[in-house]
Known about the structure:
Blueprint: E1 7-13, H1 20-30, E2 36-43, H2 49-56, E3 61-63, H3 70-80, E4 85-89, H4 97-102, E5 107-111, H5 126-135, E6 139-146, E7 156-163, H6 170-193, E8 197-200, E9 203-206
Parallel strand pairs: 1-2, 1-4, 2-3, 4-5
Antiparallel strand pairs: 5-6, 6-7, 8-9
Amino acid sequence: MTEIKPLRLAVFIGTKGRGSNLMAIYGAMQEGRLSGEVALVIGTKPDAPALLRAQEAGIPVAVIAPSDDYEAKLLIALDQAHANTIALAGYLRKLPEAVVQRFRNRIVNVHPALLPAFGGKGMYGHHVHEAVVAYGCKVSGCTVHFVDSEYDTGPIVLQRTVPVLNTDTPETLAARILPEEHAAYIEALQLLAEGRISLEGRRVMITSGSPRS
Ligand code: GRF
């Protein structure tokens, strides 16, 4: 069983993401549906749309450009924010190994497809939905998973499915999946906050019953 900890969440965003997952998480915390706070949003560029949204909402932000001392700077920022959990939201890089080790089983990501299909390097954003539609899949969805040292390979916390319709374009499919991402991410983070997640090998076990925090 993981420890019960109110989330002090560091959210890593990408250069192009809208910040919709970040704001869904933040909104759920504001409304008391998710226990904890966004301690820090970390981006690599100051003009990233998600970073600007965070700033507008009054969330602490840090811009840390990947460089020789990227890893050390990240660890310092995470320590200073007293972050105990990391959520990736549109962050497309591999996290430095020292960060993965320091936050082992406390880093989650949401992927807009049903892993292990349509994941891995280069499978992000519209590329995912284009591939799903082109393949002729009948269902797609999203996956919240722990983050390890590779792309999209960590243990799966939970998945949600949506139908793929004959009339779908990558855009309509993405629009159907996005609200599921937000809901799944909030649900998974709340499970983490409540200490209801444990790992047996790759299998993520979720304890049922009333929350303990
Ligand atoms: C989402 O589609 C998520 O699945 C992927 O990156 C995208 C980020 O979107 N990992 P947003 O910036 O949260 O709106």
